[in-house]
């Protein structure tokens, strides 16, 4: 059996909470722990990516392709072999041919002895063992060399564990089939909270992402597909437990392998048939006794999913045209398959793939059905998207699984409902099989369009009746013709009846698009008789053993009575082309009835599963999107950034072991105290036999029946902990699953996790336990020396190690803050989407330095002095003071509710001089401010910034000028301290915290291995911080984004956030890309550049648009004590956005390229009954009506397709910042309201329209003064009339008391061009 790492024994000891402590274990190489520069081993391990997907096991960390090119350099080789002793030939050998061999050796056979290491590499050099020799097997010649040279233990670690982390496959164009060893790690990562895995008889289909460094195939570039579908065929699923415990294959592994090889060959042939409506296979992988196929993931699900999630579709000419265009593409793709003249293949189990003459040539799909038509890149849950034919080999797979099962009914070909009558006859199946199936699908489509999903399901149920399975759309009757014997097939009577009903409906009336399509189904597709030329030469009735007769007729006289015969895919395609041509000439041909908005059901097809991943979790009742619900009035999707939400889930965090830092902290604690922070292990609690056998250093999952778990909870400590987190689901499900994922345990594959796994330090750990985080089950007392020591170490580590994240201190100069950024020619090209990454990084670093040199100290700071000083003083900074010389902490806090007992503590014009000269007694400060002083002193700083003290409040104060300097205040701070758990100024944040429950699973003999702690999960940065009360304040979003790093004092523990991610007081390190956007120390760099590690340039324009829209939607839902602060509380953040996006703008509007029109197309939030206009007091800047900052309430954005709209320019819509350029200057600070100049038009006489008014109760009409301003129009297909294109508009009305041509925005919407009166000249207006 292969070994994964040095083995450990199973744990047997458990304890709840201990009162005594053990001596702290002394870590090995403690001097090395203190080293500021990480070793080469650590640098290699730090680059590990993790392969985690359905069915994967522990030890699945790997080195991404190309990583070693940057790590294994001449300097790195010299570090291990000696700079002066490494022979040039050996150095050249390593750098050119053996970087992986060298890296593996670093982790296994190397010692702290350069000469030994050099001899080891010379062995590889002398034996010509290069990276191409990997994997090296033990019984190979190279393996024998390793055994002889390094001994059994080291060689086994090389053979069975470490080498597999460096030989991960890369998927490339031109290569479809990959045969790899069972130990090979696949570069997959499961999509957390994505679609649930779909189990089949032969295996599983699940959703993954593939590491960017391993995606070289162009098939990964499918539009709208950011993830990959993995179809796994697992031979072990065909194993059955026999009496006596034997495992015996019902079929043979070779049968499964043969089935995989046959489909791989078929897919290889299919890859030659390129078409936009055919899905392409990315790879076919043979990995031991597992077999995989990789396809692009269809985020929109299948056509069936679309029908189910949209129970009442939108009936409009535009939508029906969309549907017809897609089915035109599907029929063309099907015809291309059928007429393919290469080396052809039938996808039936009994097809000979080497026979190029099967059934007259061409490829037959054999299992067309709505489930096998996938939907890519839909704009929203009502858009058709791009439909693609998929699952070419499902019928064959189904038959393979049937052969391996006992006592089951065989499915002969495809799905029964869509099978044609000829499957009953033992004759060669033709390509017209697919045509019948397409006829069934189109009939279902028409029923759904006209009557909805409920009617479609009822129709299929009526055909099913009391029969088992899915009966087909044909039936048989006694034959009274031809041979006079047997039965004759005919279209099912209920199908015929439904077609007649549809013919009487208005949408399917004669001379309409749907009516003509229905006629195609009736006369050309759902036809039993086959033409003689359709791959058969017979003209007689052919009975099978059951006596069923299917007619194969002469093409000139199909049935002998002048009846029709089934058409080809080419005929179907030509028929739909003809329908589309008629529609292009007259749009009313597509649909003439009243507009019927779509009634959406589930927005995510994966929600169709009985239990979604989030539905069986303690937080199942919480909505992921807050109050953003579907707005039936507008019919538009409330969330424009759907793609961002799918890939940037704020609930899903990555947990990366960082045991080097943990060891540093424990070493520091040893200097403070000789006691260990770890509880002393005892044997006071009991475990059940199952929990007693658990080895938490290995991957595992527990499937618990809730009733049994509740019973075991009385006698088993770990079962009790599981029952406590699962008990809320008792009436919702029968079973729950607990699965280890790295250093956490998740329940039902959901986030956040329910348990954390920690261990104590162990000497020279390079086994499986190294992937478990060293952590604290019991936290130190808040405000203690150990507590503050951890915060100091966080800051010190950030200063030393996080230069790449721009978190560290800088040396700004004094001077005025102009916020003027000089851009190079390269940087100013707003249209360049593929700018070289190095240039972009240099540009950001240059601009970052420029901005930080422009930062000034806050106008005032609090001088807190030393720990024994009872008084603090307000200090006004001077012109020659620098940020470097006045390092300070900034406090982020809630003011709280003022009462006579707890009044707000402020500096005013009256007490300002007193605060400066006589100072402020610490005992007079509110508790939150006292705690801030204590924390700042403990961290070694003497200056503190608190808004209510450092900004003079009230009459005669300087809030108006100081609030515009928040970028300086928070960006220049050494660190920000967030009083997350404090309800107000008088509450405090250094408060006692509840200890969490935990259990110790360790070894009875402590010398044999470290104890492992399973703790209740409290590393909930999302719940405690991001969703906490403090972060619901409007000002705090800006404070978090502008801060380089922040310490959060929360209710259960302390967190530290900087550009490198989030650290927890438990010693967990975590990261989330969505949270990282705001936590970015150089905000908004992460929104502009690709991922730091593996990106290759700028993010796309669409991604940046979704980013700023999401940011503004989030901000719009935050609270303010004074609503007139809504604009100024975002001003520093806006300055950063405009700097990063190379644009001008103000008040939530960005003016660059398509940023401007998309910024203007905001709408009131889907759940907001009405926005409320903010009243601005005298002396405060008024916000114009075209900005959402002028209102109270949440906003969303109209969903506008990317690259599908022509935006208005020139006199039609002119912004206050025209002429636009790429240089951002500071926004105007005067009291003049910026205005837009535009052409306002009246509404026309017809056409569909959707309008969302900002304030409810308004309307438009012939006598109304409401007008529309066109912002953009859909590009549309060539030849489409302007009146039939969707137009995106602002709704405006005369401003009361504003003058003849002064208007204000009152809403937003979209409509067809025919709904706008373009015959009259537009009115030149100003929008204030």
From TrEMBL:
It comes from the Eukaryota. Pfam families: HET, Pkinase. InterPro entries: HET, Kinase-like_dom_sf, Prot_kinase_dom. GO terms for molecular function: ATP binding; protein kinase activity. Gene3D superfamilies: Transferase(Phosphotransferase) domain 1. SUPFAM superfamilies: Protein kinase-like (PK-like) (SSF56112). Residues 191-518 form the Protein kinase domain. Residues 466-487, 601-643, 805-836 are annotated as: Disordered. Residues 807-823 have a biased composition (Polar residues). CDD domains: PKc. This is Protein kinase domain-containing protein. It comes from Lasiosphaeria ovina.
């Amino acid at each position: 059996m292969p070994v994964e790492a040095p083995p450990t024994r199973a744990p047997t000891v458990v304890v709840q909470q201990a009162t005594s402590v053990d001596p702290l274990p002394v870590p090995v190489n403690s001097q090395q722990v203190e080293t500021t520069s990480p070793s080469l081993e650590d640098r290699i391990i730090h680059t590990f990516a993790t392969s985690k997907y359905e069915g994967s096991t522990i030890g699945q960390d790997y080195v991404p392709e190309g990583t070693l090119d940057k790590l294994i350099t001449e300097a790195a080789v010299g570090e291990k072999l000696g700079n002066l002793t490494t022979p040039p030939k050996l150095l050249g050998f390593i750098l050119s041919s053996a970087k992986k061999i060298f890296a593996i050796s670093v982790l296994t056979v190397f010692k702290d002895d350069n000469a030994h290491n050099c001899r080891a590499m010379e062995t590889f050099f002398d034996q010509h063992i290069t990276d191409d020799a990997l994997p090296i097997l033990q019984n190979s010649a190279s393996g024998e060399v390793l055994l002889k040279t390094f001994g059994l233990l080291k060689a086994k670690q090389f053979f069975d564990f470490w080498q597999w982390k460096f030989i991960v496959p890369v998927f490339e164009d031109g290569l479809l089939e990959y045969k790899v060893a069972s130990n090979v790690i696949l570069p997959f990562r499961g999509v957390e909270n994505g679609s649930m895995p779909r189990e089949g008889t032969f295996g599983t289909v699940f959703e993954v992402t593939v590491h960017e460094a391993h995606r070289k195939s162009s098939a990964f570039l499918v539009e709208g597909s950011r993830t990959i579908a993995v179809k796994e065929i697992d031979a072990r699923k065909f194993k059955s437990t026999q009496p006596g415990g034997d495992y015996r294959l019902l079929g043979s592994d070779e049968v499964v392998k043969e089935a995989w090889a046959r489909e791989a060959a078929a897919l290889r042939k299919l890859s030659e048939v390129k078409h936009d409506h055919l899905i392409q296979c990315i790879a076919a992988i043979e990995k031991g006794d597992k077999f995989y196929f990789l396809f692009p993931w269809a985020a929109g699900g299948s056509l069936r999913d679309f029908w189910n999630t949209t129970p009442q579709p939108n009936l409009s000419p535009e939508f029906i045209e969309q549907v017809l265009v897609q089915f035109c593409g599907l029929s063309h793709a099907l015809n291309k398959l059928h007429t393919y003249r290469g080396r052809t293949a039938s996808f039936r189990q009994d097809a000979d793939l080497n026979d190029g003459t099967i059934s007259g040539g061409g490829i037959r799909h054999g299992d067309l059905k709505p489930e096998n038509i996938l939907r890519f890149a839909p704009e929203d849950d009502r858009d058709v998207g791009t439909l693609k034919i998929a699952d070419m080999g499902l019928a064959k797979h189904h038959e393979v699984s049937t052969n391996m099962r006992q006592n089951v009914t065989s499915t002969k070909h495809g799905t029964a409902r869509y099978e044609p009558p000829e499957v009953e006859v033992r004759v060669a199946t033709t390509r017209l099989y697919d045509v019948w199936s397409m006829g069934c699908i189109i009939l279902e489509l028409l029923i759904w369009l006209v009557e909805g999903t409920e009617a479609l399901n009822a129709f299929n149920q009526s055909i099913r009746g009391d029969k088992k399975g899915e009966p087909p759309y044909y039936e048989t009757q006694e034959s009274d013709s031809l041979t006079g014997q047997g039965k004759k097939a005919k279209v099912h009577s209920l199908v015929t009846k439904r077609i007649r009903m549809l013919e009487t409906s208005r949408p399917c009336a004669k001379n309409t698009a749907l009516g003509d399509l229905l006629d195609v189904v009736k006369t050309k597709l759902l036809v039993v008789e086959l033409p003689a030329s359709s791959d058969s030469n017979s003209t007689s009735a052919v009975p099978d053993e059951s006596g069923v007769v299917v007619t194969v007729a002469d093409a000139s006289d199909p049935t002998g009575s002048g009846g029709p015969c089934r058409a080809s895919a080419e005929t179907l395609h030509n028929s739909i082309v003809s329908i589309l041509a008629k529609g292009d000439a007259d749009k009313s041909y597509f649909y003439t009835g009243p507009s019927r908005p779509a009634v959406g059901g589930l927005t995510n097809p994966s929600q169709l599963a009985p239990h979604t991943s989030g539905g069986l979790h303690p937080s199942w009742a919480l909505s992921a999107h807050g109050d953003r619900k579907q707005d039936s009035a507008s019919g538009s999707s409330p969330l424009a950034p759907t793609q961002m939400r799918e890939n940037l889930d704020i609930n899903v965090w990555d947990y990366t072991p960082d045991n080097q830092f943990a060891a540093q902290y424990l070493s520091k604690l040893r200097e403070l105290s000789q006691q260990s922070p770890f509880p002393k292990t005892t044997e006071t609690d009991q475990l059940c036999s199952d929990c007693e056998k658990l080895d938490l250093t290995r991957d595992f999952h527990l499937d618990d029946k809730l009733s049994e778990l509740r019973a075991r909870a009385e006698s088993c400590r770990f079962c009790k902990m599981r029952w406590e987190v699962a008990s809320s689901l008792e009436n919702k499900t029968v079973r729950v699953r607990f699965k280890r994922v790295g250093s956490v345990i998740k329940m039902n594959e959901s986030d956040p996790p329910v348990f954390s796994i920690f261990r104590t330090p162990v000497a020279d750990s390079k086994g499986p336990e190294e992937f478990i985080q060293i952590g604290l089950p019991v936290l130190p007392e808040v405000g203690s020396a150990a507590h503050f020591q951890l915060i100091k170490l966080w800051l010190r580590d950030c200063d030393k190690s996080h230069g790449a994240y721009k978190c560290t201190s800088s040396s700004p100069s004094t001077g005025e803050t102009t916020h003027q950024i000089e851009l190079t020619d390269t940087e100013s090209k707003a249209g360049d989407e593929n700018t070289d990454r190095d240039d972009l990084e240099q540009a950001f670093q240059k601009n970052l330095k420029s901005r930080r040199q422009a930062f000034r100290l806050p106008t005032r700071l609090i001088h807190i002095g030393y720990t024994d000083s009872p008084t603090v003083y307000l200090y006004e900074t001077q012109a020659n003071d620098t940020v470097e010389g006045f390092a300070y902490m900034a406090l982020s806090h809630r003011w709280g509710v003022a009462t006579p007992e707890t009044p707000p503590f402020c500096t005013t014009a009256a007490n300002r001089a007193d605060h400066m000269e006589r100072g402020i007694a610490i005992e007079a400060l509110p508790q939150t401010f006292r705690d801030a002083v204590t924390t700042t002193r403990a961290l070694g700083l003497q200056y503190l910034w608190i808004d209510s003290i450092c900004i003079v409040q009230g009459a005669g104060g300087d809030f108006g000028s100081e609030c515009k300097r928040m970028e300086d205040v928070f960006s220049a701070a050494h660190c920000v301290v967030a009083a997350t758990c404090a309800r107000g100024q008088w509450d405090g944040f250094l408060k006692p915290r509840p200890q969490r429950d935990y259990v110790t699973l360790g070894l009875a003999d402590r010398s044999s291995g470290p104890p492992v702690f399973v703790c209740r999960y409290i590393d909930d940065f999302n719940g405690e911080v991001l969703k906490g009360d403090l972060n619901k304040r409007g000002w705090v979003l800006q404070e978090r984004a502008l801060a380089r790093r922040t310490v959060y004092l929360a209710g259960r523990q302390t967190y530290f956030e900087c550009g490198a991610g989030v650290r927890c007081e438990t010693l967990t390190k975590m990261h989330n890309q969505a949270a990282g956007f705001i936590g970015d120390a150089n905000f908004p760099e992460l929104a502009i550049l690709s991922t730091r590690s593996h990106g290759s340039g700028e993010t796309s324009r669409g991604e940046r648009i979704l980013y700023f829209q999401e940011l503004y939607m989030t901000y719009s839902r935050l609270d303010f004590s004074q609503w007139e602060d809504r604009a100024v509380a975002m001003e520093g953040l806006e300055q950063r956005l405009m700097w990063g996006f190379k644009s001008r703008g103000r008040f939530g509007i960005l003016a660059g390229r398509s940023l401007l029109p998309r910024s203007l197309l905001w709408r009131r939030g889907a759940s907001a009954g009405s926005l409320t206009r903010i009243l601005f007091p005298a002396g405060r800047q008024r916000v114009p009506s075209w900005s959402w900052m002028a209102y109270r309430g949440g906003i969303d954005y109209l969903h506008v397709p990317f690259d599908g709209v022509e935006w208005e320019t020139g006199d039609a819509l002119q912004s206050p910042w025209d002429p636009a350029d790429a240089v951002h200057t500071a926004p105007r600070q005067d009291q003049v309201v910026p205005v837009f100049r535009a052409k306002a038009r009246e509404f026309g006489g017809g056409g569909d329209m959707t309008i969302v008014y900002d304030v409810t109760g308004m309307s438009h009409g012939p006598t109304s003064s409401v007008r529309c301003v066109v912002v953009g129009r859909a590009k549309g297909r060539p030849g489409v009339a302007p009146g039939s294109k969707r137009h995106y508009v602002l709704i405006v009305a005369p401003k009361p008391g504003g003058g003849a041509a002064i208007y204000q925005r009152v809403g937003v919407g979209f409509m067809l061009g025919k709904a706008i009166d373009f015959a009259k000249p537009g009115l030149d207006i100003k929008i204030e």
